[in-house]
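[Solved] Which block belongs to which protein?

Original post:
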Amino acid sequence: MHRFAPAILLLLALACGRSRSVVEQPAATGPTPLQLVVPAWAQDTAHALNLPYDNPLTVEGVALGRKLFHEQALSGTGTLSCASCHRQELAFSDPRNVPNEQGFPRNSMPLFNLAFAHYFFWDARALSLELQAFEPVSAHQEMNSDWNAVCRNLQAHPEYPELFRKAFGSTHIDSLRVAYALAQFERTLLSFNSRFDRWHYQGDAEALSAQEIRGFKLFTGKGNCADCHMPPLFTDHRVVNIGLDAETVDKGLGARSGVAWHMGRFKTPSARNVAQSAPYMHDGRFGTLEEVVDFYAHGVHTAATTLDAHMEPWVKGNVLLSASERADLVAFLRSLSDPGFLADPRLGAPE
C-alpha cells in the first residue's frame, strides 16, 4: 500500500511561499496525536485505512482543517468555502445539478470515509487527499482564487497564525499547510452507523424492514450491485465505465491519461448515505434513486467501447429486475443513511 510519497513531493513543488469517533493521545510536546476509531467490521484486506506517514492526524491539525473547510477567504470572491459545495446534511455533497454557476461540469462528490481512499475526484486525478484539497482553491470553475493571496489573507487574520502554530509548530502559513490541515479534517469524516450497520454488523434484527432485507439480497445477488459497491464501504476503489453512454461524452480518467481504455471511466462512489447525495453520477444526470435503479435495470449501454468487465452480467442480459424488485432495492439503499454523521455538530462550522 503506497503512502502518497510521490503526491506529497508534487504538492511541495506546488506550495506557495459520531461516526467520527476519535481518541486523543497525550504528547509531551507539539500537536496532540489523534487516532481514528473505526469499527473492526469496517476493515478487511480490501478495505484498509490508507494514511500518509508525513501528515499524521492531530487534534490541532483537524481543528484547523475544520475551520479552513468553512473558511470563505479561500475563494476569490470571499463568498465560497469548501462547505458551500459539500454540505454536511447532504453527506457533504451538493444538491445543485451541473454545470454550476462557475460552469463546473461535474457533480460534487460526497465526502466521507476518505481515510480509506487511494485517489480522488471523479477522474481519479489526485493520488492523495492533500492534492485533492490543494486543487479547488485555484481552479477557476471552483473557488477561483490565488494561493499567494489566500496565504496573505490568512497570515493577516487575527486567529489563523496561532492556529497554524499549534498545528504545525510555527505561525508561517503556506498552501502546503492549508492542504495538510484540510486533509486531516476530511479524514475524520467517518460514517458507519446506518440502520443497515446495526442490522448486519451489530445484530439488531429489527433495524431493517422485510422490504429492505429483500433489497439487500438483491443488492448482493441478482442485482449485481455489490460487484462494485461492496460492503462494508460500498465501493471497490476502482475507476470504471458502467455504460452510461453509448459514445464517450466526458472522457473521465481518459482525459488525464490519454489512454484509450480509460475513456469514460470514473471513480466508483460509495453507496453509503446515497439517499442524501442526489443528483447522481459524475454529471448529475439522475435526480432520484429510482432513476438510478431504472438505469441499471434497462438503461446500460452494453456496447460502450470501454465498458468495464464488472458489467458482464448486463452484457449477458442477466440483470432483469421487476418493478417490485427495483422498489426493494431503493428501500435498501435508503437504509444506508447515517443520521448521526449527517448532523454531527463537530463537523459543522466552528463557533
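(Second protein starts here: sequence line, then its C-alpha cells.)
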Amino acid sequence: MEDLKQYLTIPQVAEKLGFCPDWVRILIKKKQLRAVKIGQWKVRPEDVEAFIKMRRNY
C-alpha cells in the first residue's frame, strides 16, 4: 500500500478546494471525489487534482 503520508485528510482537502469539511464528506459519499477509509477518510492528492479538472470541464 502507498505511504499514508501522501494522503490528505478531509480538512486538508476542504482547505485546498475552498469547501467546508462537511461538503467534502458529501462529495465522497456521492462518489464525486475518490477516497479511502483508513481509520478516517483519506484522499490522494491526484484524486483532488482530478476532481478539480473534472469541475473545470463543466
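Accepted answer:
You had them paired correctly. Confirming on the second one: The first helix runs from residue 10 to 17.
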